[in-house]
Known about the structure:
Strand 4, helix 6 and strand 5 (about 135-140) form a beta-alpha-beta unit. The protein folds into two domains: about 5-170, Isochorismatase-like (Rossmann fold, 3-Layer(aba) Sandwich); about 180-219, no CATH class. The protein is built from ten helices and six strands; from the N terminus they run H-E-H-H-E-H-E-H-E-H-E-H-E-H-H-H. A six-stranded parallel beta sheet has the order 3-2-1-4-5-6, with helices on both faces. By secondary structure, it is of the alpha/beta class. This is Isochorismatase-like domain-containing protein.
Amino acid sequence: MSNNVERFGALTPENCAVLLVDHNLGFIQVCHGDRTDIKNGVVALARTARVYNLPIVISKTPDDSISGPLIPQLLEVVKDCQMVNRKLADMDSLNDSEVSAALKATGRKKIVIAGIMTDVCVLMTTLHALKDGYEVYVVENASGGSDPVSVRNALTRMQQAGATVVSWLTLLSELQSNWNYADPEKARTAGGLVKIISDHANGWSNLNDFYYGIKSSSL
């Protein structure tokens, strides 16, 4: 397999890890737009990662700092994952040796990144990860930024540098790839994914009917 195929090949549960950056209560208060959407997106992303047993590294500032603790809904999902309290002054998570070592220890070269702020810490961390040879996927709707112009420019900057911008739902779809119940692993993950989509994706409230119809026809 060529390096090019490996680099641009599909995300799978075996080849990617997740890095969450600064989803702290204090930081989310200064994000532009609907903060509920940001919370919804990052919780959906974290739940997806747990269904597939993806390695998750959480880079955050200390709970007693001005940025406060992690978003409670997110903490409930990732409370047993590796969390690193880095220095508040550094915008680039990978400048922290503990974060960098934790990411390297996953053994994965495809890294899914989401965080706050898109135009600050996510941008700086993504550029560093690309420089270190990682293939980076930035989850736009699990992140939040200062204002629309800054977010757009940051996403453009990251894409031009080589990152790929995705949503949590496109990531979920790529990881699942099919609903083949003859495949034990696909059958194992399907139920959890349907619950995530039903809980977090507007307009998919009827997915359970679709899921159970597919499941029944596969028996």
